[in-house]
Amino acid sequence: ALGCQTTHSNQEVLQSCSLVIFATKPHVLPAVLAEVAPVVTAEHILVSVAAGVSLSVLEEEGAMVMARGRHARSSETKLLQDLLEACGWCEEVPEAYMDVHTGLSGSGVAFVCVFSEALAEGAIKMGMPSGLAHRIAAQTLLGTAKMLLQEGQHPAQLRTDVCTPAGTTIHGLHALEQGGLRAATMSAVEAATCRAKELSRK
Amino acid sequence: ALGCQTTHSNQEVLQSCSLVIFATKPHVLPAVLAEVAPVVTAEHILVSVAAGVSLSVLEELLPPNAQVLRVSPNLPCVVQEGAMVMARGRHARSSETKLLQDLLEACGWCEEVPEAYMDVHTGLSGSGVAFVCVFSEALAEGAIKMGMPSGLAHRIAAQTLLGTAKMLLQEGQHPAQLRTDVCTPAGTTIHGLHALEQGGLRAATMSAVEAATCRAKELSRK
């Protein structure tokens, strides 16, 4: 129905395709690679996503990074980037950044969910019905993120732009700082990144 | 260049237009309304975006059958992703209210609500823009601490916000459900979430919305 061919032979995939994405669980991957190694050529572009693809990629607004191996050529790397950009934003980085990306953007999806829920619950406490509060919270996240990406502004600049003296925003910001939101968030990214590095070593 | 006409006469605007948006600072508004009141008819649709000025105050300044509506926008309207709510006055008719909503939807999401929710909207969505900025900055700084360069970290943080928000809106999932969906047992995410909870992110965020809303209510009373 989707126009895709399937096969039970991993080697056949390598023999019919030049760019191959390996999307198995991490622990399965070594055996699969050993199986196809005999039919791999220097022309193949072999891509592993074994560390886990962020769910947001499926919704065409992913944040992806990729790193190239020693023999991956620039034109093939560019081809992969072009393909991945169908699912969102994608940039090549040194491999050393990939665990941080997991902590920030892979796990970050869950951190954003907690933040969105908390924004909504603050509003529910103040009298807004739940469904409306959740929708407005998510829309506020979306709109602010779009401004940060489109204008390329530093978030501290945008934050300053919306603060009227003695207004509602600066009162709210004070509470945010008193509650230590920044430290909690940095700790979350740190903890997730450290766990990613641990898992890489296993 | 934009094809707009301008004038120095507020009354002339009312005489040429059926739907008029009053976008002055709150303290200027009463004088402007007093000035145009003589030429207001029951057919006009009068829209205020002034924070903290209630429908009853607006109606008092205008003729008895004037159709009045209030809108609370937020800054991302400038990128067509605003979160707006509007409330109708006693004489605003349904078709006129719908017309306004259709117009505002050019800038983002807009829904009619009871006037009582407008201060909460200010706290959540008006001021919320700044709260999201702090959160985005903190996400990026966590990554910078772990070795990622600043520019890349800020871009990925903002893109992660955008993508997650889009999932929440499109799928209509409860954020707790999406959060659960991304938690592999003993994985990176659950380790991060524990730190988030230990740091009290939820309470800090709720307090921010509460404080901003309370300030909005205070300002409305002045």
From TrEMBL, chain A:
EC number(s) recorded for this UniProt protein: 1.5.1.2
UniProt key word Amino-acid biosynthesis: yes
GO biological process per UniProt: amino acid biosynthetic process
SUPFAM superfamilies listed in its UniProt record: 6-phosphogluconate dehydrogenase C-terminal domain-like, NAD(P)-binding Rossmann-fold domains
Keyword Acyltransferase: no
UniProt GO MF annotations: pyrroline-5-carboxylate reductase activity
UniProt entry keywords in alphabetical sequence: Amino-acid biosynthesis, NADP, Oxidoreductase, Proline biosynthesis
Pathway the protein takes part in: Amino-acid biosynthesis; L-proline biosynthesis; L-proline from L-glutamate 5-semialdehyde: step 1/1
Record-linked Pfam families: F420_oxidored, P5CR_dimer
Residue ranges of every copy of the Pyrroline-5-carboxylate reductase dimerisation domain listed in the record: 95-199
Domain Pyrroline-5-carboxylate reductase catalytic N-terminal: 3-52
Catalytic activity from the UniProt record: L-proline + NAD(+) = (S)-1-pyrroline-5-carboxylate + NADH + 2 H(+); L-proline + NADP(+) = (S)-1-pyrroline-5-carboxylate + NADPH + 2 H(+)
Subunit structure: Homodecamer; composed of 5 homodimers.
Biological role: Oxidoreductase that catalyzes the last step in proline biosynthesis, which corresponds to the reduction of pyrroline-5-carboxylate (P5C) to L-proline using NAD(P)H. Proline is synthesized from either glutamate or ornithine; both are converted to P5C, and then to proline via pyrroline-5-carboxylate reductases (PYCRs). PYCR3 is exclusively linked to the biosynthesis of proline from ornithine.
PANTHER family tied to this protein: PYRROLINE-5-CARBOXYLATE REDUCTASE (PTHR11645), PYRROLINE-5-CARBOXYLATE REDUCTASE 3 (PTHR11645:SF0)
Family to which the UniProt record says this protein belongs: Belongs to the pyrroline-5-carboxylate reductase family.
Protein name: Pyrroline-5-carboxylate reductase 3
Natural source organism: Daubentonia madagascariensis (Aye-aye)
Lineage: Eukaryota, Metazoa, Chordata, Craniata, Vertebrata
From TrEMBL, chain B:
Pfam families documented for this protein: F420_oxidored, P5CR_dimer
Domain Pyrroline-5-carboxylate reductase dimerisation, chain residue ranges per copy: 115-219
GO CC entries: cytoplasm
Listed InterPro entries: 6-PGluconate_DH-like_C_sf, NAD(P)-bd_dom_sf, P5C_Rdtase_cat_N, P5CR-like_CS, P5CR_dimer, Pyrroline-COOH_reductase
Entry keywords, A to Z: Amino-acid biosynthesis, Cytoplasm, NADP, Oxidoreductase, Proline biosynthesis
Ranges where the Pyrroline-5-carboxylate reductase catalytic N-terminal domain occurs: 3-52
Keyword flag ATP-binding: no
Pathway: Amino-acid biosynthesis; L-proline biosynthesis; L-proline from L-glutamate 5-semialdehyde: step 1/1
Keyword Amino-acid biosynthesis: yes
Domain of life: Eukaryota
Coiled coil start-end: none
GO biological process: amino acid biosynthetic process
GO MF entry, a single one: pyrroline-5-carboxylate reductase activity
EC id: 1.5.1.2
Location(s), subcellular: Cytoplasm
Reaction(s) the record says it catalyses: L-proline + NAD(+) = (S)-1-pyrroline-5-carboxylate + NADH + 2 H(+); L-proline + NADP(+) = (S)-1-pyrroline-5-carboxylate + NADPH + 2 H(+)
HAMAP family tied to this protein: P5C_reductase
Function: Oxidoreductase that catalyzes the last step in proline biosynthesis, which corresponds to the reduction of pyrroline-5-carboxylate (P5C) to L-proline using NAD(P)H. Proline is synthesized from either glutamate or ornithine; both are converted to P5C, and then to proline via pyrroline-5-carboxylate reductases (PYCRs). PYCR3 is exclusively linked to the biosynthesis of proline from ornithine.
The protein's assembly and partners: Homodecamer; composed of 5 homodimers.
Family per similarity comment: Belongs to the pyrroline-5-carboxylate reductase family.
Name listed for the protein in its UniProt record: Pyrroline-5-carboxylate reductase
Organism field: Daubentonia madagascariensis
